Amino acid sequence: MADSLVDVECRISEGDYVVLKRGDVYKSVQVQTKKKIIFEKQWIFLDAAIGELYGSTFEVDAGGKLGLRKPKNTEDDSTEAKEAGQDNRHIVDDGKSQKLTRDDIESLKGQGMKGQEIIQQLINNSTTFRDKTEFAQEKYIKKKKKKYESKITVLKPTSRILAMMYHGREPGKVCHLRYDTLAQMLTLGNIHAGSKIIVFETCAGLVLGSVMERMGGHGSVIQMYPGGGPVRAGMESFGFPSHFHDTLNEFPLCKVNALLSGTLNVDEKDRDSGKSEEQPAAPSSGGSESQSMEVSTDPAEAKKIEERERLREQRAQEKKVRMEEKRKRLAAAAALLEGRNADGLVIASRFHPCPVLLGLLRFVAPSRPFVVYCQYREPLIECYTKLREQGGAINLKLTDSWLRHYQVLPNRTHPVLLMSGGGGYLLSGITVSADAATSGAPRKTGEPAAKRIKLDD
Amino acid sequence: MSFVEYSELIQEGDVVIIFLGHDSMMPIKVESGAQTQTRYGAIRHSTDLIGRRFGSKVTCSKGGWVYVLHPTPELWTVNLPHRTQIPYTTDIANITLMLDLKPGSIVCESGTGSGSLSHAILRTIAPNGHLHTVEFHAQRAEKATEEFRDHKVGHLVTVRNQDVCKEGFGVLGVADAVFLDIPSPWEAIIHAKKAFKRRGGRLCSFSPCIEQVQRTCEALLDHGFEEICTLEVLQRVHDVRSVTLPLPDFGPEGGTDKTKIASDPLPEEVPPSTNPSYSSVTCRTATPPREMAGHTGYLTFATKPRG
């Protein structure tokens, strides 16, 4: 399999962000040697995956080590049943059909028996298996496989996989944003390479990462963030190459008003960090200076003080560099926003979308799409109403999507029994020039009714 | 203007979308000296469009106004000239995400149809990806080629006029993703398999009928595809509006009125007319449209493992 045609990026390396898949369950991890990972109540070490190809499937042994599984055709799905019943008239649920006890199974596991073999044991010890219909047998095996087989596939992360992972495992972290809704956002937002996109999200960085994936490292993204700093864990899980990160900028929400009113001074000392970072450094260095002049009697003591002094200086210097860096980044993000010519706006947050949307929309050029996600419908109704009153946006649509999966099997095709009850709501639209050149009825922009009113007066 | 890159100003030769009002739009090609008639009067390209900013309000000859919009694949989908049934944005969005499309992806598609999905794919895979699209109807293939050129995405796409079920996609071992929207997708699975890169990729088949899905899934399984998954996705629109709900009249409160009601029917009619301000409540809500698209097609996705 390993031939020269296989490019390097197809191999798993240490430090890579990968997604582990077992059945329908995903987990995003970084590959590190000797690092214990818990996945589906199982200890795993990923060491053996390093150097293998992405998409490889591994068997987990009792010690949590991975062993490469051979590709498909060698898979011995030999848990075949020879006999089958016609229907279930003779199947009685008396809880006695399985002769193996919980302890028996545990001891089989303890002996290092593979999942496949355990399932065969379960079948051999089931008094009803032979009476089950062929379909029911298949279902039984599938269910047991899910429980006892510990196959893990290592995948390269994509927004599809990460969105499904978050939705399946931790929907609360992504404001219950379902993957098909994320898909709508990226498409309705016309996210593509070379554009300048503003993102405001509190979805762990998943939406940000998905936007960046669609931009492919071309163009620029400005992440607006609430509070102390941007959250990007979900974006990091994509494992983007470093040049992607060069396209990413961040700007604090709390400075949006200053930027809009033209009073933002990026050279001014950051007030919050100024307090926490500057103050301890400044007075203490001053204090130690006077101190060292006074207490210079003991040479050893003086040396110690000197050393401490030097470290302090160094730390202060580092802080200064960091702050300078932060200021530069702020200035760069401000410069990107100031032109008020962003190509798109994507919002998905737990905040009330109305002020966020109305505030950030002012940075978007005319004739560009925007899309707002909210877990609830009513706040978006309010956004819709406000935008209608204010103007500057047309083609407003409030939607949600309905998603249903199907079981497709010969003669047994039907919708899957469970379906997601809702994937959140979207408000999308297109910006237009708000110039008052023809200011007939700006309150009802884009409505045929508005035109009639305007023609009347 | 290009479908894969925004511009600020309208230029000669651009395709622009004229927004006439709620859900009413039309695409036009900008040519100096030309005029376009709308229900609000004529738009003169030279003076009203060329050199203006996208998103501007343009006053037509009869005094009404419209907005001129930069084209996007989504606007194109609702404005394009239909030569076939087309996939709509809700399905397109899911196809794009589930096929893992991004800048640089190499995609095979069949059929091209009216180019609705093609434009969306091109937008996503630009600037360094490529779309190989196969259409068995010669005239449609020709028309699509022309449109791609007009929309300045011609360099990203190769249109082939052939039958994908017999002749495949015309390329082997290059694709990251394959999309099928043809009457008998199961006959094209073998060609799809050959089109994929050695490392594999993602496949999607769009079919309106469950019988097609059934046969396609069997073919996918036979050819070693994995993670086969069929789903259906629908967009639900919520029309925002204010609704007024009348309040019921339970008559005057308290038990003392018993005799009055029994003796005199007149008071029953008095409250609503004397107190009209309490007779109804207006609330801002959203309602579903009377009818909606209840079925477009089933989307079947699968992963082609490394070969």
TrEMBL record, chain A:
Please tell me whether the keyword Cytoplasm is annotated for this protein.
no
Give the Pfam families listed for this entry: Gcd10p
> How is this protein annotated for GO cellular component?
nucleus; tRNA (m1A) methyltransferase complex
The UniProt entry, under InterPro entries, shows:
TRM6
**Location within or outside the cell:** Nucleus
Entry keywords, A to Z: Nucleus, tRNA processing
Q: What GO biological process terms does the UniProt entry carry, in alphabetical order?
A: tRNA methylation
- Region annotated Disordered sits at 69-96, 267-323, 438-457
Role of this protein: Substrate-binding subunit of tRNA (adenine-N1-)-methyltransferase, which catalyzes the formation of N1-methyladenine at position 58 (m1A58) in initiator methionyl-tRNA.
Q: Which family does it belong to?
A: Belongs to the TRM6/GCD10 family.
Its assembly, as annotated, is: Heterotetramer.
- Supply the name of the protein: tRNA (adenine(58)-N(1))-methyltransferase non-catalytic subunit TRM6
Q: Which organism is it from?
A: Ictalurus punctatus
TrEMBL record, chain B:
Checking InterPro entries in the record gives: SAM-dependent_MTases_sf, TRM61_C, tRNA_MeTrfase_Gcd14
Q: Where does it sit, as one GO cellular component term?
A: tRNA (m1A) methyltransferase complex
Q: Where is the composition biased (Polar residues)?
A: 275-285
Intracellular or extracellular location(s): Nucleus
What molecular function does GO assign, one term?
tRNA (adenine(58)-N1)-methyltransferase activity
Tell me which EC number(s) this protein carries.
2.1.1.220
SUPFAM superfamilies per the record? S-adenosyl-L-methionine-dependent methyltransferases
One biological-process term from Gene Ontology? tRNA methylation
The name of this protein is tRNA (adenine(58)-N(1))-methyltransferase catalytic subunit TRMT61A
Q: Which organism is it from?
A: Ictalurus punctatus (Channel catfish)
